[in-house]
Amino acid sequence: MPTTRYSKYEATLDDLDMSELMKMIQDRLMESGYQRNPWDPDPNYQQSMQDLYDAIAEALINNELVSDEMIEQAMNAENWMDSKLGEAVKELAQRLEREGYLKPQEGDGEERDPNNPGQGGQGPDRDPGQVKFELTNKAIDFLGYRTLRDVLGGAGKSSVGAHETKFQTTGVESSAESKPYEFGDTINMDVAATFGNAAKHGLNDDGTFDLQYGDLEVVQTEYNSSAATVVLLDCSHSMILYGEDRFTPAKQVALALAHLIQTQYRGDTIQFALFHNSAEELPLAKLAQAQVGPYHTNTAEGLRLAQKMLKRQNKDMKQIVMITDGKPSAITLPNGRVYKNAYGLDPMVLGETLREVGNCRRSGIQINTFMLARDPELIAFVQRVSAMTQGKAYFTTPHTIGRYVLQDFQSRRTKTVN
Questions:
Q1: pTM of the model
Q2: Domain 224-417 CATH class label
Q3: Predicted confidence (pLDDT) per residue in 190-247, tens digit
Q4: Which of 140, 168, 162 is nearest to 26 (CA)?
Q5: N or C: which end of the chain has fewer CB within 10 A?
Q6: Do 369 and 394 meet the contact criterion of CB atoms below 8 Å apart?
Q7: 294 CB-contact burial (10 Å; exposed 0-12 / middle 13-18 / buried 19+)
Q8: Structural domain boundaries of the chain?
Q9: Diameter over CA atoms, the chain
Q10: DSSP 3-state of 109
Q11: Cα–Cα distance, 396 to 153 (Å, whole number)
């Protein structure tokens, strides 16, 4: 298979494929606040064009795609964006826009200059730190595919296929074993097994054999149910606070799950919601750039919102995939005020949360919880939630959560029926 090897470029990097560049900067594009100031996160923060320029420059340098002379010139320049490296970076940002991976936001009612993409309608003299950008559907789909491939590859699966199996991998198609026919079964006859059973009775004098009711066997097949899934993402402060970024891996898994459903399970639906002091539904287009905030953990409100979202879906299976790292520490009171208590499992907070878990059970909604912490109190709480809704609890880490979420989802997709 032919490969492309990139060498050190002088300025334009014309031969660099934009999908390769997206792969190099994907971690920076999904940054959740940990790299800025985890003690003072801004939930409304949105990356600017300057953030994009910095990410591209870092990728070019780390992958040795620019010469040492260009790097030295940029380091000695008063503003590195005015150097050859800066010019190359701006050109690559414009190519990302032209190829549909991102779109700078319009601002201040100014007209967009079609001959000068990458400026977001702000003019060439506008500070790029003030110009925000959004990822397009193409970029979201790319990030989801990349994460899906990386996660399954990390689980020992070599490629992404379309077979209806427990794992997403290439291989031969196999069917379930046949079974004796019972009244009400679909007549999907296993001819070889049926005739084999009849032949066991022996041949008649004329060389024929009698086929009896008990000889009939039917082939069992895989029934693929449709599912409605709501992914509940905890974006409270603790998700970036304790020495690691837990929110970005959670977002990556959510994107991978969305890509899996859109490509392999088209009859399914998937929706996303954030929960913190309260909860809100999150469009897929906004997922990659969602930020952690200085919030508590209102699990009850998140479950309440997820139930409302699932009630709109008419599917065989309804489930909530909750990714969190903390105990419930807030609830919404009847008057709308948010009650908070971050110290231990507050009985009032715990009671309200378990009431919502009970409502999920009565509605036939399963809760599968992926816990990124291992405090004894949390373990007991999550086990109780799982028992109430016949769901599963996984105590994992940001490094392994993807494998657990995706494999758990796929293992629930089929059951053997005749």
A1: 0.73
A2: alpha beta
A3: 888 888 888 888 888 887 888 888 888 887 766 566 889 999 999 999 999 888 899 9
A4: 140
A5: N
A6: yes
A7: middle
A8: 18-41+48-131, 178-219, 224-417
A9: 104
A10: coil
A11: 18
